[in-house]
Specification:
With about 325 residues, the chain is α+β, with helices and mostly antiparallel strands. The chain contains eight helices and 20 strands. It folds into three domains: about 70 residues, no CATH class; about 120 residues, no CATH class; about 110 residues, Mannose-Binding Protein A, Chain A (Roll). About 20% of the residues lie in helices and about 35% in strands. The strands form five sheets. Strands 14, 15, 16, 17, 18, 19 and 20 form a seven-stranded mixed β-sheet that branches. Strand 16 and strand 17 form a beta hairpin. This is C-type lectin domain-containing protein.
Length: about 325
Amino acid sequence: MTAKMQWSLILLFLCCFIDCQLYQFHYINENKNWTEAQQYCREKHTDLVTVTNMKDMKRLINISAGDQSDHTYIGLFRDTWRWSDGSSFSFRHWNPIFNNHNPNSGQCAMTKFDGEGRWTNVNCDNKKPFICYDETNTTHKYHLIKEEKSWQEAQSYCREKHTDLISGMKQLQDEEVKKLLNSNYQPYIGLFRDTWRWSDGSSFSFRHWNPNKLILIKEAMNWEDALTYCRGHHYNLVTITNVDDQKQIQEKVKEASTDYVWMGLRYACTLDLWFWVSDEMVSDENWAKGEPMDDCDMSGAMETGGEHQWKKKNDTEKFNFICSKN
């Protein structure tokens, strides 16, 4: 969606009572872009609507019934990088060689204290040491935790035993931190990429994507050409992050003319990891038995028959593929 696209919007007003929270939805029949809609909602109510479950979804459908617009804005938007403790993220200090080589390789960040302390994005499941901080009224105290954990495990550890993962440039440039890490450690920091988020900051993971935003392309192409086609004509090669995604795509692939269909799943040989080209984490895995057995020049494809499991296939093989429209 571009800033030039003008649609109607829905916004959210939050009323708090003694024993409960009541979300009151207001349908605004004005044409605005998403940013203008968000500003309007925050000024006159609370925020753009957050959808937490199917009950909310049905309420939205009822409140917008009879509207002539094809689309209505909600508070879900595509985000980039942010800090674990909510600190403002504007300054970038990436390792230019690594990220220019493969910008989609991971959704979490680590740093190397080698004089420059540049950041590198890595797969969040990698096990690494990490830095926690304790916050008082006037100072911060930092702790290098040498026990290796995934990024999410590190975040939970820091929040349980300290305040959070180290976050923000002010903390990372603290002299105490620099003294703490005169070593070869490459620890996690509190920087991560949460591709989709709600305008009001809610952590609800509920999604209700339109299944028609997936399209099966019945042309046989290699993986690179399929990716280029999807990005040129639609949005991207498809990403699967949960069981519902898997079920929707299974129905689509039944119509394919090849034994497999390409997905947006790729193996990065130099980094030794699998990643989605849409920047989503590889969390819901449906690999066939014995797969993936990491290997170079490989990408992920789904069986069009059987149990529709995933298999690694050489990038040069030609299959149908599924594009996403958002």
